[in-house]
Amino acid sequence: MILFKLLPIALVCLNYVIGSDAVAQSAKPGRQIGQAIDCDRDGQQDDIRMDDDGDGIPDRCLLNQFKPIMNQANYAQELKQLQAQPCEKTQKIIKNVSYMVCSTNGGKTIVSASEALVEVGDGVGLWLKGDRVRAIVFFGTGEVVFFNRGVLEAQMSDKRGVTTVFTADERQHFERLEKDGVRSILQKIGR
């Protein structure tokens, strides 16, 4: 009879021991497996795979763990890669202004768009990564501004290097150009 009275107490104690051991195991820090990768498919190698149970197999992925070190060399390299993309060019000249769109997939995917004064060459070029503008080059000054999903990220120039601090007016101006620039050029070309 005493055994039956003690059995519920023993089960409660056993559940407590098992439960606290599970909490202790889940509180153990995981171990990173391999280098940073792109788990969330955002195009950035900033996620890490974690092994929580020590078996060497990733159990989860921690997203956005690393902010890439972006300096002038890295931005210049990225711009060079954007500009080197193969594409089919469509150009139209209206009143001394040249409008050009570079596209792939039979014109379905826009790679870049630009507008420039024919005689002077001063103007602007927009390079896309996916379906968003990643970089805008100002041909007259050589300055380049970079965006991350529509948000101004950095400005690069030979004189000032890389700047990441902007006034509200600068941010508004550049982000409006990012939002409307390609559409405006496509309208001029008639696409």
Can you offer a commentary on this structure?
The protein is 31% helix and 36% strand. It has 191 residues and is an alpha+beta fold. The strands form 2 sheets. It has an 8-stranded antiparallel β-sheet, with helices on both faces. It has a 3-stranded antiparallel β-sheet with strand order 1-2-3, with no helix packed on it. Strand 2 and strand 3 form a beta hairpin. The longest helix has 26 residues.
Number of strands: 11
Q: Give the strand order of the largest sheet, numbering strands 1, 2, ... along the chain.
A: 4-5-6-7-8-9-10-11
Computed over alpha carbons, the radius of gyration is 27 Å
- Give the oligomeric state: single chain
Pattern of helices and strands: HEEEHEEEEEEEEH
Taking all residues together, what is the mean pLDDT? 82
Percent helix: 25-40%
Spans of at least 5 consecutive residues with low confidence? 10-27
Count of helix runs: 3
Largest sheet: 8 strands, antiparallel
* Category from helices, strands and their pairing: alpha+beta
